[in-house]
């Protein structure tokens, strides 16, 4: 059992979301940086997609009311347990009464708190993720408030090393001036002018303050133009879709985006790079690099393997600790 | 003629639109969606308006294989009517609940009452569900009411708002931004995540709007 000590309208319970509810008009949702949540869960012996807390608003503090294993991953946030600094990407055990405090990130934007067993809220439409727009999932479909108490799914007691342990290889975070993400061309790519196609890949796009779990509005020096006006019927879109409304400045649809849209689409950011967007702070720059579908498939499969290898290595380590 | 495009590595968009909206094309979209949704590696087949998005797990299957299956499935599919139910949606028109009614009447060159009569006389069909939880794209709007969307979307349109936009009719299932024009409101809940069937409307349902005080 943990108690949230700091409220905000942005910190939410998330897992891997609802990929199977799109036909209901429900966004996939889930952690914006899935790899970070997965790594935290794996360190604790949880399933990679167990529910944790996505923290976007700092400082964030929780009090543990029972002995609980936990891991902090994602953005590089100064983290302390009862004032004692914790290493980055670290898992350890908190005793009853101890307070975990996370400060604003020095690098990255979103931090994840995973808890042994995973947070126990009722699954809705197959997931525990909070859907703020639909008002369901997580804790009553809303962000976490001061005073909220959260229980964990009972987990098999399996010890962590006395002072904890962490990831030896960290998940990459954007540098101070921004990030480069890999994209595939989308349906209307060829309807953009040659100049627009060149600009899209050549120009740095500033992330404006209109950036949240639904979408990221970008701003570039020169806008993107079509060779002819398009009037598209509404169609399904996936997280990572880069739309270009008539004003010519792109919008990246993120995990809580509407499941259908009607604006022309120039590209789609590949799945493994969505987490880099999730960790990109407002005001820094995003660049788009074109890759092939084969390269995208390789990148996705490589990430899947990396997560499987981490899970295997952690399981071995934990077995050796018990032995 | 159809076009298939990439929506990232793990999704394909089949676009069968050819000028104006086609009911026959939409019925073929539903049939293709039903068959593709049953494929083992497919996560979802999501009908849009004369188009279909298919998502799949590239850890299990190569995208070109899904692309071939999608094309073959489309080619052998014929328009399929789905079982249709008749759903009535009670609407309070105008006033505080329908702030764009006057604007739409002006656009259509009709009186307020004529505009409402035109909206209630339509038999609408649920072509697709998406955008928001339980939002239905209703086709069958009288062309005189086909007012373009607002240039700038409203940041907040209330749940239950009965609206029109881009040649379609719809009802807001939750409070959300929208660029559609608001004619009135209904108390009917279009979506409830805790119902065994969360969406009130199913693909192919016939919808009528009924004026209530």
Automatic annotation (TrEMBL), chain A:
GO terms for molecular function: ATP binding; hydrolase activity; transferase activity. Residues 23-306 form the Carboxyltransferase domain. SMART domains: AHS2. Keywords: ATP-binding, Hydrolase, Nucleotide-binding, Transferase. Gene3D superfamilies: Cyclophilin-like (2.40.100.10). PANTHER family: 5-OXOPROLINASE SUBUNIT C. NCBIfam families: urea_amlyse_rel. This is Biotin-dependent carboxyltransferase. It comes from Gluconacetobacter azotocaptans. The lineage of its organism: Bacteria, Pseudomonadati, Pseudomonadota, Alphaproteobacteria, Acetobacterales.
From TrEMBL, chain B:
It comes from the Bacteria. SUPFAM superfamilies: Cyclophilin-like, PH0987 N-terminal domain-like. Pfam families: CT_C_D. One of its GO terms (molecular function) is ATP binding. This is 5-oxoprolinase subunit PxpB. InterPro entries: CT_C_D, Cyclophilin-like_dom_sf, PxpB. NCBIfam families: 5-oxoprolinase subunit PxpB. Residues 2-201 form the Carboxyltransferase domain. PANTHER family: 5-OXOPROLINASE SUBUNIT B. Signal peptide: none annotated. The keyword Metal-binding does not apply. Its EC number is 3.5.2.9. Keywords: ATP-binding, Hydrolase, Nucleotide-binding.
């Amino acid at each position: 059992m943990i108690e949230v000590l700091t409220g905000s309208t942005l910190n939410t319970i998330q897992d891997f979301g609802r990929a199977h509810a799109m036909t209901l008009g429900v966004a996939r949702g889930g952690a914006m940086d899935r790899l970070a949540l997965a790594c935290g869960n794996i360190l604790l012996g949880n399933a990679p997609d167990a529910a944790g807390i996505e923290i976007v608003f700092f400082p964030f503090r929780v009090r543990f009311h029972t002995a609980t294993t936990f891991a902090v991953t994602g953005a590089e946030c100064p983290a302390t347990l009862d004032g004692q600094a914790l290493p980055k990407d670290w898992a350890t055990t908190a005793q009853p009464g101890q307070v975990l405090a996370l400060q604003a990130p020095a690098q990255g934007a979103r931090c994840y708190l995973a808890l042994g067993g995973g947070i126990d809220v009722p699954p809705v439409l197959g997931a525990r993720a909070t859907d703020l727009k639909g008002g369901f999932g997580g804790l009553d479909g809303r962000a976490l408030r001061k005073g909220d108490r959260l229980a964990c799914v009972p987990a098999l007691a399996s010890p962590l090393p006395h002072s904890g342990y962490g990831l030896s290889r960290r998940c990459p975070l954007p540098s101070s001036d921004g990030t480069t993400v890999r994209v595939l061309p989308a349906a209307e790519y060829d309807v953009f002018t040659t100049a627009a196609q060149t600009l899209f890949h050549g120009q740095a796009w500033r992330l404006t303050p209109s950036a949240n779990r639904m979408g990221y509005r970008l701003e570039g020096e020169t806008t993107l133009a079509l060779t002819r006006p398009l009037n598209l019927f509404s169609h399904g879109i996936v997280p990572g879709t880069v739309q270009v409304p008539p004003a010519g400045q792109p919008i990246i649809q993120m995990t809580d985006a509407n499941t259908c849209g009607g604006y022309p689409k120039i590209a789609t950011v590949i799945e493994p790079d969505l987490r880099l967007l999730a960790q990109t702070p407002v005001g820094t720059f995003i660049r788009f690099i074109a890759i092939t579908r084969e390269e995208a498939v390789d990148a996705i499969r490589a990430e899947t393997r990396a997560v499987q290898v981490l899970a295997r290595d952690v399981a071995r380590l934990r077995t050796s600790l018990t032995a | 003629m159809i076009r298939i495009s990439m929506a990232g590595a793990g999704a394909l968009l089949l676009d069968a639109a050819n000028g104006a909206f086609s009911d026959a094309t939409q019925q073929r979209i539903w049939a293709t969606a039903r068959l593709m949704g049953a494929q083992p590696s497919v996560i979802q087949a999501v009908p849009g308006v004369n188009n279909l998005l298919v998502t799949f797990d590239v850890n299990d299957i190569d995208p070109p294989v899904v692309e071939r299956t999608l094309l073959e499935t489309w080619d052998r599919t014929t328009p399929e009517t789905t079982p249709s139910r008749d759903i009535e949606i009670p609407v309070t028109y105008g006033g505080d609940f329908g702030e764009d009614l006057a604007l739409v009447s002006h656009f259509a060159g009709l009186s307020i009452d004529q505009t409402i009569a035109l909206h209630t006389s339509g038999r609408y069909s649920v072509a697709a569900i998406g955008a928001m939880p339980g939002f239905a794209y209703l086709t069958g709007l009288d062309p005189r009411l086909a007012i373009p969307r607002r240039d700038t979307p409203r940041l907040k349109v209330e749940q239950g708002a009965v609206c029109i936009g881009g040649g379609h009719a719809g009802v807001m299932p939750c409070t959300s931004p929208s660029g559609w024009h608001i004619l009135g409101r209904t108390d009917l809940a279009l979506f409830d995540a805790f119902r065994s069937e969360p969406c009130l409307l199913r693909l192919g349902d016939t919808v009528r709007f009924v004026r209530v005080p």
